From TrEMBL:
PANTHER family: ACYL-COENZYME A THIOESTERASE 1-LIKE (PTHR10824:SF4), ACYL-COENZYME A THIOESTERASE-RELATED (PTHR10824). This is Dienelactone hydrolase. The keyword Kinase does not apply. Keywords: Hydrolase. Residues 114-332 form the BAAT/Acyl-CoA thioester hydrolase C-terminal domain. It comes from Qipengyuania flava. It comes from the Bacteria. Signal peptide: none annotated. GO terms for molecular function: fatty acyl-CoA hydrolase activity. One of its GO terms (biological process) is fatty acid metabolic process.
Length: 338
């Protein structure tokens, strides 16, 4: 009896541990975790980019308006939480395009070889609109969306400013929410079916999880192997415009502040664009975005991925106005902001 319990405990926990590593989340959701493709709601409209859905929130007025490509993270799909952020930016005078670049269908539910062509399609969509000022297009993204935003901006000089929250300094190996074997995955991103150079996960031995190894620690351990995979580093020095990075020192998902500093140092050493890092000592993975009221029923959820709810919210109170000021300085603001 005790032997069977021990066998289940080690095997079951090992499966859970392996399943969380690629996504960077403490994943206890079942493999059939629902794919969410929310409608844009009031003020938005559904568009299609390379057969993938996107929500578009046009700035009011004739324009031409500055525009933002807004990238969600590894939750995938099209989420109401990101729609809400898009509406906030729309109210500031920006036309906002939120592409569902992965996990919008069963065929796109794996974060492996995600085509950067979806971002190209987003850029072309904005450039083709007469109400968009094509000289004022920026990228805003968080977590895997921050990784994608920085990677894409390093390849497209049309992107004039980038805000990346909880950023990555490298392209990571792909993953699936329900996988237990990560050797099957190539790069997170692809171009014309070819994998972008990536940093593979340095998977700990199963027993290391019992001696204090964390998900963020796994990513830190993997980063130590970057010297052997130098081409996985994101060439932030090739971004055409300024970059704002936001991170929490207590991030329990991956080491976003150390990676933000890697990006800042690389750009400075290689003559790249100005990179500003906003790092918050008591905050974690919920460090960025519009602040919440303390009476909000979801307020305590800000502490679920590192730092206290209060510290995360105080960080938001500081960095959300700075984000808007950064975008206003480098992209301008549309008529709705005046």
């Amino acid at each position: 009896m005790m032997g069977r319990k021990l066998k289940w405990g080690l095997g079951g926990l090992a499966l859970v541990v392996l399943a969380v590593v690629g996504a960077g989340y403490f994943l206890f959701a079942p493999p059939d975790m629902p794919i969410t493709v929310d409608d844009p709601g009031e003020g938005g409209e559904r568009v299609v980019l390379n057969d993938r859905p996107a929500n578009f929130f046009p700035a009011p007025g004739a324009g031409p308006h500055p525009a933002i490509i807004l990238l969600g993270g590894s939750e995938g799909g099209l989420q109401e939480g990101i729609n809400a952020r898009a509406r906030l930016l729309q109210a500031e005078g920006y036309s906002v395009l939120y592409p569902g670049y992965y996990r919008t269908s069963e065929e796109t539910k794996t974060f492996d070889m995600v085509p950067l062509e979806t971002f190209d399609a987003a850029l072309r969509y904005l450039q083709a609109r007469e109400d968009i000022d094509t000289d004022r297009i920026g990228l805003v993204g968080g977590l895997k969306g921050a990784e994608g935003a920085l990677l894409f901006a390093s390849m497209r000089p049309e992107i004039r400013a980038v805000v990346a929250s909880m950023p990555s300094s490298v392209v990571w190996q792909g993953f699936d929410w329900s996988a237990t074997d990560f050797s099957q995955f190539s790069s997170s991103w692809s171009i014309e079916g070819t994998p972008v150079a990536y940093l593979p996960y340095d998977m700990p031995e199963w027993w290391e999880w019992f001696t204090g190894m964390t998900i963020a620690g796994m990513y830190e351990q993997s980063l130590a192997g970057l010297d052997n995979h130098g081409d996985a580093a994101i060439a932030v020095e090739k971004v055409a415009g300024p970059v704002l990075l936001i991170c929490g020192e207590q991030d329990q998902l991956w080491p976003s502040c150390p990676m933000a500093r890697q990006l800042e140092a690389r750009s400075r050493e290689r003559g790249g664009p100005p990179v500003e890092v906003l790092a918050y000592a008591g905050a974690g993975h919920a460090v960025a975005g519009a602040p919440r009221e303390e009476t909000d029923e979801n307020f305590e959820g800000l502490a679920s991925m590192g730092g206290s709810a209060l510290a995360n919210n105080e960080a938001r109170k500081d960095n959300w106005p700075k984000t808007l000021a950064f975008l206003r300085q480098h992209l301008g603001a549309g008529e709705a902001a005046h």
